[in-house]
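# step 3/5: fold
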Amino acid sequence: MDKKILVTGGAGYVGSHTVLQLLLGGFKVVVVDNLDNSSETAISRVAVLAGEFGRNLTFHKLDLRDKAALDRVFTSSSFNAVIHFAGLKAVGESVQKPLLYYNNNLIGTITLLEVMAAHGCKELVFSSSATVYGWPKKVPCTEDFPLCGMNPYGRTKFFIEEICRDMYRSDPEWKIILLRYFNPVGAHPSGFIGEDPSGIPNNLMPFVQQVAVGRRPTLTVYGNDYSTKDGTGVRDYIHVVDLSDGHIAAVRKLFEDSNIGCEVYNLGTGKGTSVLEMVTAFEKASGKKIPLVMAGRRGGDAEIVYASTEKAERELNWKAKFGIEEMCRDQWNWANRNPWGYGSPDDQN
């Protein structure tokens, strides 16, 4: 396949793993990333892992809101599709700094869509999120559930989905797939690339891994009085390599199905796992004890959220392959080899 894909936010966690799977799938890839919460090291490591396919990878450091710079990228290359990961993603930070999130996520996306339209590139895969389901009244979540954003981050995902639907309604030449991720964890089995959040991690597993390598003393568990099997919140954790393969399936769908329109798919495993189950699995994989501190529930956290994956299985011919054992094994392999992520102890503030 001699197709060229633009990947925004391709130096990030899910982005870098997806770029690798694209390269191995025979695609040419151009990454744009402002490196706000990612590292250029991830891109160079992806090129190494891709072997001979690494030569099909190009990187530009730029912010999507810089329309002139983005336009130059589109002028210099002709793209068959765009995968749009770029965006800020910390729920807590979004509550404290809503304008930062609206400015970065919404204006960045609008600028991207404007430039795509100007260059006649109307094939898009957007990384949305299960946060658009808010606090679902029942599980599993199906794609036709009512949508709502419970915080500024979630609202940016919801608004961008709506913008994409409006784009398609206004111009049926657009072909858009919205992918609602559940909880990506794990790392590439090589341990060479993985999740490396800047500052204090917002998600469970990077926090667990930092406790395991001695960077943090304890893991705080928010809420142990939910009506779940062990009192802790239940989520649908998905291996990042499975998630990446979901993007490859979505891109292929764009190219093969002329009637795709603007379609949405959940990417998860369809199984719920509690916080304590995940911690136990990680302890088993790593051989490390994770000291816990129990705290009250966090405002805005739902009790149980997991995906219905039937639509993606049926229409994308995609299904998650890995369970929590593999997720924890690969997460620990990455953490053990890269205790300071892509940086070093000296980089930490």
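# step 4/5: annotate
The longest helix spans residues 98-118.
# step 5/5: archive (pending)
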